[in-house]
Each structure stands twice: as structure tokens, then as C-alpha cells.
Amino acid sequence: MDAITGNLDLWRQGIGTTLLLFAGGGVIAIVLGTVVGAMRVSPVPIARAVGTLYVNLVRNTPLTLVFFFFIFGYSALALPTLPNTILGIAAIGVYTATYVAETLRAGINTVPVGQAEAARAIGLPFGLVMTQVVLPQAFRSVVPPMMSVLIALLKNTTVAAGFSIAVLPRLQQTISNSHTRPGTSMEILAWVAVFFVVVVMLLTLAQRALEKKWRIAR
Amino acid sequence: MSSVLYDVPGPRARARNRVLAVATVVVVLAAVGFVLWRFTLSGQFTAQKWSVFTYTNVWITIGEMLLNTLKAFALAGVLSLALGFALAIGRLSDHAWVRVPVMVVTELFRAVPVLVMMMIFYYGLPTFDITIAPYWAVVLGLTLYNGSVLAEALRAGVEALPRGQSEAGYAIGLRKSNVMMLILLPQAIRAMLPVIVAQLVVTLKDTALGFIITYPELLYYTKLLSSQARLGSPILQSAIVIGGIYIVMCLLLSWLAHWIEKRGRRSAKRPDAGPHDPAADDEVTLTEAISMQTGAGPRNAGGRLPG
Fold it and tell me: What is the value of pTM for the model shown?
């Protein structure tokens, strides 16, 4: 327990930064992912091509390398300096956006074409076809996989530890370098693991609840 | 062509689509142009910055590092497949004393981030005076995580099979292990092949985490190259070249999966290849209906009869 009570300041900082990366990365991922997802299902061929290129390029690059580009590569471009945390949020957001885009696209593809055709046949305009028929059905099938994407995003925040961003796994290095702070590396890492198990479990429970609530009754 | 989102475009929609196409091109060109402008401004295109890739030794080392990446990926891939099968079979067991611990272990390994697992092996174990090489920390971390993810995929594949499959197996007198090995798993593997390969791509990408625990793989070497001040610190140049290698490897793996899947589909003479038969996965199978009528009640929840 000493590993926690003796380093409360570090734990507060670590959890804060982890949640900051989670929230910031999540917002970027959902906004950018929605745009890219919309491009990938749009009737404009060039937009589809750009969306596909983006998804294929970024999804096949390791997240660690994406971080590398943002943290080290950005500084080489002689642009105004930004704190590593901000660059980390951008990196994880850009990476997760591809998964958000693919989830949205898959969700839209689960709606049978006949649904939209029937809606058009009774004379609904585009806006109503979307809001009354297609999106409500797509939304239900998107929510559970989207929660999985968010859970993966939370776990991926740990990668930032390799780029001197003060997320939770970073505590191990900080504490073992300080010599005066209590706690062995094993203790610290075990508690970090416990944190993730608990939060992931909570998110999984939320996922199950949402899944149950919005199950499609056919 | 009509899709779920858009009807066949009329003249106004076509005009709007043209505007959208132009807008997309403008935005993309602006973004690419900005990056290229910054590249030029900060001298990223100078010959000195790229000169690092004119040395034969650099390419030989890149080859060695690529081999290290592939070494970790190959062993972790094989081990996580083995672990995945073991955990999946354990979790499908009829005995609660096998099923419950396996379930807890699977959920636990799935919830802990891979990097934390690697760090526990590399930085944590020395607390107990156990030291292992970074290679093994990478392989073990990847194996535990991906093994439990694969186990879940295989279990979902087995559970999605129509119950009549196992019942037919038991009816011709197969034992539990035979039904699993000969009937359920082969079908589950075929159904889950895309998921399995997607997970292998994840494994390949996650080997790059080894860089953080000092395993000398591709990304580790990228960092090393980018700190060569004598060659102009080619950070972006080495990241672009190594990134290209990763992308090609992952695309090849995905393409291989696609090819295997297509081949499997063509060679398989499956009766259920046509429209899905809703009766096949009814909640209650005929066997259970009969057993209920005779007062025997449905057998255990998994629909498996005692072997």
C-alpha cells in the first residue's frame, strides 16, 4: 500500500494524464472518425478514395510509430512547440479515428438497402430517410463495437509512456529513478494493471447495459 | 446505383457531388501542401537528411532489425494461437472448475494493456530477482494478450454454430473431445479466420512496443538513426522509410488472409453457403423439443450431452 500512499501526487498526475489522453483522444477520434466514415460511404468517388487511403495507411502503422511521428517528427518541422501531452492526444486521436470510421461504416452497412428504398418509396426526403429510418438502426448496431474501440483507446494511452508523457505506466520509471520514493517496480506496475482492469470492467459493464437497452427487436 | 444511404443521383445531386469532390480535393491538397511546405522550409528534402539511406550498413542493420521484429512476431503469433485454443476449449468446458478460472484469466489478460504486461515482465520481475531478456518480455506480453483475445474469438465462433452440429456429432457416438476437434473447431476456425488474421496484424504492429522496453527491433533502430547528428538527425526520413516497411508487412498479411478466405470459400462445399436457414439456429432444437415432451427436460445449457 505504501506504493500508493507514499506517491499520491504521482498517482493523481498519472491518472489525470491517462484520462486526459482518453478524453481528448476520444473527442478527436470521434469527430475525425465520423468525417472519414462519412467520406467512406459517400457517393463521391474521390472522397471514398481519400477515406480508404487514410484508413489503410494509419491502421497498418503501429501506434508507437504514429506517436513517433507526432512527438519527434513534429519538432523537426520547426513549428511552434507544443507540450508532448497535446501531441500525444493528437497522435492517439488520429490513430483511433480509423477504427471509429470503420465501425461507423460497418454499422451503416448492417442496415438492409430495402429499408432505405422503402422509405424513399413512401416519399420521405433524404433528411427523413436518414433520421427516421437508417441512422436509428445503424446507431444500435454501432454502440457495442464503438465501446470496444473506446476500451482499446483507453488501453492504448499507455503507449504514451514511451514518449515521456506522464501517463500511468510512466510512474514505474519516475519512482524507480527517484530512490527516495516507496514502492518497487512490480508493485507500481501491478497497481497500474489493477487500475486498467477495474476501468475496463466498468466500461464493459456499460457496454453490456447499452447493448441490452438498444438490442434490435426483430 | 442505389445504396442504403443514397438514391440514384439526379441532375442536382450530381452537381452537388461535383462540388463535394472539388472541395475534397482542395482540402486534401491544402493539407498535403502544408506538410510539404513545412518539409521544404525545415530542410527535410535536403540530400544530407536522406543520405543515411545510401549506406549499405544501414540497410543491413535494417534487415537485422526487421528480422528481430519478425522473430518476436512469429513466436508470439504461434504461442498466442496455441494459448487461444487452450483458453477457448477451457472456457467451453462443462466443468465449472475449469471454466470459471479460465474465464477469469482470459478477462484479466484482455483488460491489461500489452505495454503494461511487457513492462511487468521486463521491469517488474527484477523485483523478485528474475531477469528476462527484452525479447521474452515482448513475446510473453504479446502472447498473453493476443492469446486471450483469440480465445474469445474462437469461443464466439464455436457458440455461433447451430446446436444441431454438436448434437449430430454425439448422435453418431463421438466423444466430447472428438466433437470439439472434428466438428466444432474446424468450422469455428473457418468462420473466424478474418478475426484471427486481424489479430495477427495487431500482434505484428504491437511488436513495435518492444522499442519502449529496449528490444532492438525496427522502431528502436528508427530512434537510433534519427539521433545521428552527423547525418542531420533524419527523424522524419527514417520514420517514413520504417513506416513504409510496417505498412507493407501488415498489408501483405491482410492480403494473405483475404486470399486464404477466398480459397476456403471456393473449395468448401457447404450446404449453408446459400441463404441462411433460420431454423438451424432456433433457440430450441428438435432434439430438445422431443426430450422436453418425454419429460426429460433440456440437457445442460451448452446443449452438449455427457460424452
Answer: 0.85
